[in-house]
Every structure is written in structure tokens, then in C-alpha cells.
Model the fold of this input.
Amino acid sequence: LVSRKRHPEDTIVMVGDTPVGKEPIMIAGPCSVESEEQVNTVAKVLVDQGVKLIRGGAFKPRTSPYDFQGLGIEGLKILRRVADRYGLKVVSEIVNPADIEMATEYVDVIQIGARNMQNFELLKAAGQVKTPVLLKRGLAATIEELLFAAEYIVSRGNSQVILVERGIRTYEKWTRNTLDILAVPILKQESHLPVLVDISHSAGRKDIAIPIAKAALAAGADGIMVEVHPDPSVALSDANQQLNLEEFTNLMSALQLPVTSS
Ligand code: PEP
Ligand code: MN
Done:
């Protein structure tokens, strides 16, 4: 179902009135939702920059059980309130199949994170709702495994799936993961689903944000996902890779994304 052979035309996933899969789009926001004030500060800058989709994690799959685990439902409520205030749409990760139904009340796009790309019960649950799903490539998943994960969702009835290349694990240590730029044109060729590139989790650093975002768009990505925090030095997660507001504004100027409307 996700193969381009059977379905040659591009799938455009509508998130509110923003088409994903047409002109390149930007999804930006903090790694974790920490407070309403934090999300509000980021949202203002997104609106200034013409960005329509805000991201933020409320349920955080952290490597260490002692790290900040996210605000849970309270985080989703904060995102919803702030997004409604600014006319934004919410992208947030859900980790538990039992939470998918509840999440549809708060989020406009259900994110399935890299660590859960092959959580098949979660994929099936996401296939049973109508809310668009942003599916991230697993840390050690092949392109084919990513496409089969998408197939789980689509085959259960939800065709609104966005694929995200977010870097895979290699022996390279100067970046957190290795951005598999080759996956972008291959996914676009093999599948009709939109493909985004997460420049934050792939690199794990922010000094090269502009060139990797440009590379992603040049490779045919339908947009970029990036982490932005008002003060990354005090962020409760992923402090090293989150852009501050000025760095984000610079990224937006460098990319000159078209202003899209449906
Ligand atoms: C995220 O985007 O918040 C995240 C945890 O990313 P990933 O699942 O790609 O590690
Ligand atoms: Mn993060």
C-alpha cells in the first residue's frame, strides 16, 4: 500500500490547512514540553517565521530511567492550548498503544518515535485512527523495515503517514547518529508518502544545522524537523542539539521556504 508502484501519485497529508508532501514545510519546537511559558515563547517565533506545525514531546522515551520523562497528558494539554492560541497544529509523540485514542483529542499529528518504529501494537493502534502519523526511522532500521512499519499503519486503515529520516547508528562519533541522506531519494522513489528529515536527532549538534537542512531539501525531502528551545542550555532533554530562537530564525532565513497554502 505504501509502494509507489501501486500508487504512483504523491500522497499529500493535510495537517489542518497545511499540505505535507507538496512544498517543503518546517516542523519545529522543543524536544520536551517543559512549561506553558516555554512552549508559548517558541510558538511566537514560529508564527513570526510562518511555521504552521509545532512539535514537542510530552511522553519522552529516554535512554536513562532517571532522566526527565516528560509531562505526559499535561504536556499535551499545554501544546493544545498554545497551538490554539497561535493557530498552530501539534505534532507530539505517543508511546503507548492505549493512549492513541486519547491523543487524537489533543494532537494533530501522532509521532511514533525511532525507538518505537517496530512497536507493532502501537503501529496497529495508530492505523485505527484518522489522525495523521509521523513515523520516524528506527535507530538501526533498514529502509525496507521503515516502509513495512508504515505498511502496518496504512493497512489498518490510516493512509495519512509521513516518513522521517532521523539518522541511524553507525561507528561515527562526531555526530549522534549518521543522517542517511540516501534514504531520502530512495524513499521518495519507492513510496508515495511524504518524507521529512529530522536535522536535530540525526546530527545531535546544531552548528551544522543549515547545511544539513539544505542537503535534505536538495535530496528531495518534503520538509525539515528541528528542535528549538528558548534557552537550550537549561533544556531538560537534548540540550546540545536544540537551536535557540535566533539560530532558528537564521535557519529559516537560510532556507527561504516557500509560504504554502492549500
Ligand atoms: C523526538 O523527535 O522527540 C525523538 C525522541 O526523536 P527520535 O524518536 O527520532 O529519537
Ligand atoms: Mn529530542
User: Anything to note?
Assistant: Residues 31, 201, 227, 237-238 surround manganese (II) ion (ligand 2) (CB under 6 Å). The first strand starts at residue 13 and ends at 15. The chain has a mean pLDDT of 97. The two ends are 25 Å apart (CA to CA).
